[in-house]
Amino acid sequence: MVTDSRSAVHLAHEVSPLLQALMASWAEQAGVRALLIKGEITNQLRLRPPRGSLDADLWVSPDSFDAFCALIATRGWLKVHDSEALGEKILRPHSATCRHVAWPAETDVHHYFPGFTAPAQEVFELLWARRVSYEVAHQTVLGVDRGGAALISALHHLRSTTSMGHQNELAYLTDQVAQWPTGELASLADLAAATGATVTAGDFLAAVGAPVESEQTSDRDELARWEENARGSGLVGFGALHAIRAAPWRQRPRLLWRHLWASPEILRTRDPSVFDDGKPMPVARARVRRWAAAARDLPVVLRGGRR
Amino acid sequence: MITISPRVAWVDRGESVWLLHLAAEDPTPVELTDSAASLWRLLPAASVGELAERVGVDFSVPVDAVIADVENYVASMLDQGFVEVA
Q1: Cβ(B9)–Cβ(A21) under 8 Å?
Q2: Which of A14, A76, A139 sits opposite B18 (nearest CB)?
Q3: Rounded CA separation A59/A61 (Å)
Q4: Which residues 65-84 of A are in CB contact (within 8 Å) with B?
Q5: Which of A2, A76, A137 sits opposite B10 (nearest CB)?
Q6: Which of B11, B13, B27 is opposite residue A22, by nearest beta carbon?
Q7: pTM
């Protein structure tokens, strides 16, 4: 077991490449088609400023998602349910976060990625056809190619438009991709069109000069979720209001209470700094901070979002 | 010949080297620090003797003073499946 005085974040950075290699190895052994996304391969492709990862992200063929999650559960990697338990996610669940008691890093097993609005299996097949081998932790692993990695990174950052960190990384990504040869940019645009990402990643594609000529056929519901999520990015209470409005009337009072009186586990997930500062009554302080933030954002939330 | 097992994933983080045996029943990371990490970085090696000689050169110590430790190290790594001896 990895336990010592160093921070969990530091240890996760140290060992996440090992975890990425492990998950890729288990998928291969089980005959499950899976591609590493984000993490080390994004570093190797220079699509983000060099930095460590906190987890391993593996995109598993959607038709094997349940089987792979069941497989790793038998090996101690159990699904974590936290914020989704409150039902406030606007985007539909796209991955399972799995933890193991002896590991400081997490595994995110994806069956789709928000922003790709074509059917999940179709998107995976397109990315699988373009798969590339990488060396991670001295092991050969399969991952998405440079175009796929760029598109995934762009969608990841575009999902959280109010985050300064995401904005900075998107600017870095845009600078890098804008230097690609014309043919590769055309291939990127084709991939975006085929996976239903020309609207969701439209700003990025325009910024890098990837010509989008064909009109995509997006899943309207998926696109509507994406746009609503973008309107609520960074607003405390936006997701909660979405969940309450979507719930049947008789469930709404209970849901409202759960959002107002979030559990310590949820509060810790949302505001870990309060729990790590060593001061007393972290739960109460986290709750008050959350209420204050919600009150601040309430006018914008009620107007439908987007600050 | 002492070589790193092909089923071992590993990363060198400077202050330490982290290993993971992918075929282990319950794979968890193992951290090597100090001389253990230094020895790992010297692999592959033709033999325990050659590894001890390289340690002697790198650390300016007589081979006789380190040979027993190197033997123990290789035995331990072999026992855990991190290295192979052919």
Answers
A1: yes
A2: A14
A3: 7
A4: 75-76
A5: A137
A6: B27
A7: 0.84
Amino acid identity, position A127: L
Residue of A nearest to B10 (CA): A137
Report the pLDDT value the prediction gives residue A83, as an integer from 0 to 100. Answer: 44
Q: Is A15 on the interface with B (CB under 8 A)?
A: yes
Q: Which residues of A touch B40 (CB under 8 A)?
A: none
Q: How far apart are CA B65 and CA A103, in angstroms?
A: 37
- Which tens digits make up the pLDDT trace of A132-143? 999 999 999 999
Q: How many C-beta neighbours within 10 Å does residue A245 have?
A: 9
Residue B59 tokens, joined: 């650390």
Contact A139 B28 (CB under 8 A): no
Return the amino acid letter for A176: Q
The pLDDT of residue A84 is 47
The per-residue pLDDT for A86 is 54
- Contact state of B11 with A17 under an 8 Å Cβ cutoff: yes
Q: How far is CA A110 from CA A113, A168, A198, B7, in A?
A: 7, 24, 21, 25
Percent of chain A scoring above 70 in pLDDT:
92
What mean pLDDT do residues B41-59 have? 94
pLDDT at A305: 64
ipTM above 0.90, yes or no: yes
Helix axes A146-158, A182-194, angle to 10 degrees: 60
Distance from CA of B15 to the nearest CA of A (A): 11
pLDDT at A267: 78
Considering CB atoms only, which of A100, A102, A137 is closest to B11? Answer: A137
- According to DSSP, the residues that pair with A55 across neighbouring strands are A106
Place of tokens 């919600």: A294
- Kind and range of the H or E run holding A157: helix A146-158
CA distance A210 to A176: 13
Rounded Cα distance between A291 and A296, Å, is: 9
How many residues comprise chain B? Answer: 86
Q: Residue A179: CB partners within 8 Å, gap ≥ 6?
A: none
